[in-house]
């Protein structure tokens, strides 16, 4: 009997904005949309909530001091963090629902590039800067797209200081989900993150197939775990590129197909499900329907 009480995360805010904003793609395109068209961010949050998300994540993934400084925009850090908080709050107010709001501690220089991470001390200081902007306005912290054990542990340890629940999400090798993108074993990463105090372990921004393999490893170590996979063919073309226009989506990962992966993850014991890049509100709606169907099925079985 599948568990119907799993939490539903939102989907991929960034790629959804690409589709809707028609904004010129820049190295800081999601931050640009947040600054110039915050109403679109509110709209996407709202659509994910309507689709059934129990948790929405702040749209400040790209607004790290390191990324902003690279383009001489470090003075926008606080403004962008505040804009992300306001957009999430506005979406909740607009439809009078109260999903949990997750703060985000992302890879600081950029995604999928574990070799480019900052020094340990610099990472701690920068994550602290981000956490200080967010912690009073969120219900939990999501340390996401962690490609190495070091960055996963540092972000988790900093988030733990807030006193809020911390969910740490790892991104894995696209052809072998037993390893992080850094090449480190996922079971070692899971043990290290749990030792830092994370209350949930997740896999994100990885292919659904590799995600399934990774969850098999997490199931042996964690009580609370889950996934929010991406719908890209591969993120490898993004290495060395500044904009996401080099990435292609997998047309076969439609809402129904993604829900089938979600069923597989539930069968492994997952209790948190959502989506990352290329997974939109329609995919999240299908996961919500899956939860409702499981609930109804379990109710019928109990009555019989």
Write structural notes for this entry.
The chain has 304 residues and is of the alpha/beta class. The protein has a single domain, classed as TIM Barrel (Alpha-Beta Barrel), CATH 3.20.20.330. Helices cover 46% and strands 12% of the residues. The chain has eleven helices and eight strands. Strand 7, helix 10 and strand 8 form a beta-alpha-beta unit.
SSE layout:
Blueprint: E1 7-8, H1 13-21, H2 29-36, H3 38-51, E2 55-57, H4 65-70, H5 77-94, E3 100-105, H6 120-134, E4 140-146, H7 149-160, E5 166-170, H8 186-196, E6 200-204, H9 208-218, E7 225-229, H10 255-267, E8 272-275, H11 281-303
Parallel strand pairs: 1-8, 2-3, 3-4, 4-5, 5-6, 6-7, 7-8
Helix pairs in contact: 1-3, 2-3, 3-5, 3-11, 6-7, 7-8, 9-10, 10-11
Give me the count of strands: 8
Low confidence ranges: none
* N→C terminal distance: 14 Å
Q: Can you name the CATH architecture?
A: Alpha-Beta Barrel
Topology-level CATH name = TIM Barrel
Q: Looking across the biggest beta sheet, what order are the strands in?
A: 1-8-7-6-5-4-3-2
Principal-axis shape: globular
What are the key terms here?
8 strands, single chain, 304 residues, 8-stranded parallel β-sheet, TIM Barrel, 11 helices, 46% helix, globular
Short description:
The chain has 304 residues and is α/β, with parallel strands linked by helices. Helix content is 46%, strand content 12%.
């Amino acid at each position: 009997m599948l568990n119907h009480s799993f939490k539903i995360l939102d989907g991929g805010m960034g790629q959804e904005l690409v589709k809707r904003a028609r904004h010129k793609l820049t190295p800081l395109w999601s931050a640009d949309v947040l600054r110039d068209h915050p109403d679109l961010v509110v709209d996407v949050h709202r659509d994910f909530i309507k689709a059934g998300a129990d948790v929405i994540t702040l749209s400040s993934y790209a607004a790290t001091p390191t990324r902003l400084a690279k383009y001489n925009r470090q003075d926008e850090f606080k403004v962008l963090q505040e804009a992300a908080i306001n957009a999430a709050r506005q979406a909740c107010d607009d439809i009078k629902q109260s999903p949990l709001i997750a703060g985000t501690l992302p890879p600081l220089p950029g995604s999928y590039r574990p070799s480019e991470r900052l020094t340990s001390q610099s990472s701690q200081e920068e994550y602290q800067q981000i956490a200080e902007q967010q912690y009073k306005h969120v219900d939990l912290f999501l340390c996401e797209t962690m490609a190495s054990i070091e960055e996963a542990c540092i972000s988790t340890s900093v988030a733990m200081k807030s006193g809020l629940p911390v969910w740490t999400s790892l991104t894995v090798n696209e052809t072998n989900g037993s390893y992080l993108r850094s090449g480190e074993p996922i079971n070692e990463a899971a043990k290290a993150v749990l030792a830092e105090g994370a209350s949930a372990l997740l896999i994100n921004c990885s292919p659904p197939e590799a995600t399934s393999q990774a969850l098999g490893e997490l199931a042996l170590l964690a009580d609370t775990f889950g996934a929010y996979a991406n719908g890209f063919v591969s993120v490898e073309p993004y290495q060395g590129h500044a904009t996401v226009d080099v990435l292609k989506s997998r047309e076969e990962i439609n809402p129904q197909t993604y829900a089938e992966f979600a069923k597989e993850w539930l069968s492994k014991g997952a209790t948190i499900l959502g989506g990352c890049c290329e997974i939109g509100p329609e995919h999240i709606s299908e996961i919500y329907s899956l939860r409702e169907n499981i609930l109804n099925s379990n109710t019928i079985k109990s009555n019989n």
